Amino acid sequence: MIEICFVCTGNTCRSIMAERIAKKMAKQRKIKDVKFSSAGIYANGENISQNASLVLKKLGYDGRARKSVKLKKIKPETIYIAVTNEHKRFIDSKKVLSFEDFAGVVGDPYGQSLEIYEKSAHQIEKNVEMLLDKINLLRGVK
Length: 142
Fold this sequence. Notes:
Blueprint: E1 2-8, H1 14-28, E2 34-40, H2 50-58, E3 78-82, H3 85-88, E4 96-98, H4 114-139
Parallel strand pairs: 1-2, 1-3, 3-4
Helix pairs in contact: 1-4, 2-4
């Protein structure tokens, strides 16, 4: 089992969207042995942002409420995907990449319009697609 944890600042927008998007995309690709989670460097138990929830639902992903999770203990077996290179610097692990290593920066939609959240979600989709492609490539699956 591969464990992948997406990490951003508060775990109310980008990382939770990445987790939910990755879960559905992996299921659609019949990738069953990868477990996805998300956390925030400064998370403090806030709910997923309303606009993140609305955009996830609009795009066909799980938009249910969930409290943010603080990144506490780094697990050596987990692969961490930081949303930005700045987040990456906070994660003390040899198994850390950022979205900037894949398809590029995902803008922070926190507190902005629904359109900005949707733009961020589409950026996340591109990054997750590349991540899943790389997992399949390493396994020799096309």
